[in-house]
Amino acid sequence: MSKTAIDKLLVKTAQGDIASFEQLYECTKRGVFAFLYTYLHNYADTEDAMQTVYLKVKTYAPSYRKGTNGRAWLLEIAKNQALNQIKKRKREIRLDDLGALSFTQPEFSGGEGVTEVMQRILSQEEQQIVTLHVLWNYKHREIAETLGCPVGTVTSKYKRAVAKLKKELKEE
Amino acid sequence: MKSWKKRWKLELDEKIPKLSSIEKETPTESLKPEISQKTSFFSRFSKWIRAYKKQFIACLASSMAVVLTLCIVLPHLLTPTTEKNTPSALMIEINPKALFSVDKDGKVTKIIASNADADLILADEQRANEMLGKKVEDSAKIFVDCAAKLGFVDFSKNTPIRLTGYDNVNMTSAVANEIQNYLLEKGTLAVVVKETLQSVAFCERAGLPTSATAETLTQTLASQTRLYSNRLENWQTAYEEIVLQKITRNVAEVWEENIADIKERLGQMYPECLPALDWFIASLSMEQMLDILQSMEIQTPFSTTLIQLPQTVEAYTQKLQLFFEEEYISRTEKYRIAYETKREKISEAEYQTYLNELITEYGSLSLYWEAVKNN
Predict the structure, then answer these.
(1) Is the model's pLDDT at A101 over the cut of 60?
(2) Distance between CA atoms of B266 and B273, rounded to whole angstroms?
């Protein structure tokens, strides 16, 4: 969905238009979910975070300034929610388990989804770059501005991530 | 088989919950008073428009006609015209340096690069041809804009530009005004230093054989090849200076950006070198560095074929063309944000103040140019 369309839907949501809010949810849910998942790494926490994010979007839509970047505004809410959630819960990092996951994971047979594969083989930054480009239609330079890194780095990391995914998912 | 993107989107659609009634029914924050006032003003304005529709349209149409007429007439009245019936030449120096051959009607018939940076702009024949057949002030502006896209004109650092006209004061002034206005619109205080020289001095500055008349100069320019790098006699040395040094710098930058991943990779490929990894990295050749980057699927802007020295003049020309194409893409991407950043237009008053300060400090704009270029 384009920046302009999101902008219009946010403005209408701010005016109390429920239909616009539903449309906004339908058009942005994939991108928000995938973006949250890159931080939270499990579906339960991501679903909880999704609900809170859209509650905040609905509540604070009037504070969104028309004509500024609606996509970035939404993503900022999602990122802050994910970081808050991470701080609240305890994270157990079991290196041995992660190592076993990398080397004994069976070949992809359709049981493991693309999201799980991405989490397993890509770094967090690579996951975010792929999510922003594929689900949010961000251009590489917009991703570079968002993540604060050079455009060349974004381009090379995106290409590398896609190559890894295609190889793992057995695509040409 | 569906592509991974389609599969991913379908999986997400299955996993993502529907919008709950809690989210739908959550109230928004109440609208702030300023928004209500704006709505009220807008509705009053709309009513006024509906009531006086015909008069409003007539007023708008006549205003637009006046503005349009002024836009067409004023530039012709205010801009000095070039002298007619005399061919001429113009040199633009930013860091790219180029010579423009100008016919008696003030139109550009040929553009020649005077250094390798200008080759970057003129290597693409279509891009070079866009500047031909136009009035010299328009052609020069296209050249300067291209230089800005490639990062040679730094709007944040007031990069000065020097124009040297061959024996035609009006032409030089016309071009200087056009480029200066362009720079002020872009929000930079960069100064255009303009000079008009007679034949011997102009040819000396341009690095051309001395031409006694404007016609001879035109013939000399017509006989030159467009690209500077194609005119060099020692093309093997030129290739090292123009191409290889640049590629080496770029590979070093990419290497540095990815050094953590590279070290990890090298540690896996050559575990025996781990105790002296930095020394091992320092001993790698350019080909080895590029192989390692390629194996890690890290892109560099340049094709690996360019690091092999050309063996013939034809191979040299082909490799140069490829290099300029890739360097053009790389640089426009690198400087895109700086070029596209919106800056406030500089006012005439602010510009004049800046000019006066420069003249006070350096004595003249020509001396300012010399001081900047010598530093």
Answers:
(1) no
(2) 8
Mean local confidence (pLDDT), B269-286: 77
CB contact under 8 A, A165 and B4: yes
A76 at the B interface (CB within 8 A)?
Answer: no
Please tell me if residue B38 touches chain A, with a CB cutoff of 8 Å. Answer: no
Beta bridge partners of B89: B101
**Backbone conformation region of residue A66, classed left if phi is above 0, alpha if psi is from -120 to 50, else beta:** beta
**Residue numbers in A near B31 (CB within 8 A):** 14-15, 62
- Determine contact: B249 vs chain A, CB below 8 A: no
Q: Which two three-digit tokens encode residue A155? A: 């381009």
B271's tokens: 């575990």
How high is the pLDDT of residue B109? 94
**Of the ranges A28-32, A98-102, A157-161, which one carries the lowest mean pLDDT score?**
A98-102
Closest alpha carbon to B106 in B141, B79, B133, B130:
B133
**Gap between the Cα atoms of B301 and B257, Å rounded:** 14
Q: Is B349 on the interface with A (CB under 8 A)?
A: no
Residues 124-163 of A with CB under 8 A from B: 134-135, 141, 145, 150-153, 155-156, 159-160, 163
Per-residue model confidence (pLDDT) at position A64: 80
Q: Any residues with CB less than 8 A from the CB of B200 and at least 6 apart, and which? A: B210
- Answer whether A166 sits within 8 Å of B4, measured CB to CB: yes
Residue in B closest to A24 by C-alpha: B19
Residue B125: C-alpha distances to residues B109, B193, B219, B328 (Å): 14, 29, 21, 13
Q: Is a pLDDT exceeding 80 seen at residue B58?
A: no
DSSP symbols for B100-162: EEE-TTSBEEEEEESSHHHHHHHSSHHHHHTTTTSBHHHHHHHHHHHHHHTTSS-TTTT--EE
Flag whether the pTM goes above 0.80: no
Query: Phi and psi of B166, rounded to 5°?
Result: -90, 100
pLDDT digits (tens, 9 = 90+) for B206-238: 888 887 788 888 888 888 889 998 888 888 888
Nearest to A114 among B8, B27, B301 (CB): B8
From chain A residues 101-130, the ones with a CB under 8 A of any chain B CB are: 113-115, 118
- B5 vs A contacts (CB less than 8 Å): 134
In chain B the first and final C-alpha atoms are separated, in Å, by 62
Q: Does any CB of chain A come closer than 8 Å to the CB of residue B24?
A: yes
Element spanning B247, H or E:
helix B245-257
| Rounded distance between C-alpha atoms, residue B116 and residue B129, angstroms | 18
